[in-house]
Amino acid sequence: MTSSQLEVDPTFLAVRALGPWLAEVLEPLGTERATAAHGGVELAIHELATNIVDHAQSTFIRFTASVDGDQLNVSIIDDGQAFDTEKIVIPAADQPQVRGYGFMIIEALSLRLDYKRQTDLNVWETAFSV
What φ, ψ does residue 64 adopt, rounded to 5°? Predict the structure, then answer.
């Protein structure tokens, strides 16, 4: 199992590097499996990264990914403000709202999503079926 790392500035433009990086990470799976997994994984990780850009006031965002059999493990680390998991509000299906769908999307696309504050870093761990 090998891992790959990408570190970007905390900007929306820099986060666009996720797509090509993920393609490289998934390439060893073969074209069919990599293509099938890429869109959902990129969407979920992009949602989390844009939340970091929007809210954390970080100086960097670091992504690490590794494929272990049929699972892609991704960690996302930033040095921004601590995240309060109590503030996650999952949208109600019958109540339209402008924001708040990101975590719902991530949970639907991933096997798990965990958060911890480690010293002065935010550490997100997620996994996907590939």
Answer: -130, 135
Q: Where are the domains of the chain?
A: 3-129
Query: How many C-beta atoms surround the C-beta of residue 79 within 10 A?
Result: 16
Alpha-carbon span 55 to 116, nearest angstrom:
16
Residues contacting 106, CB < 8 A, separation 6+: 44, 47, 48, 113, 126
DSSP conformational letter for 116: E
pTM: 0.90
CATH for 3-129 is: 3.30.565.10
**Integer Cα distance of 40 and 46 in angstroms:** 10
Q: Report pLDDT for 86.
A: 78
The C-alpha atoms of residue 52 and residue 60 are separated, in whole angstroms, by 10
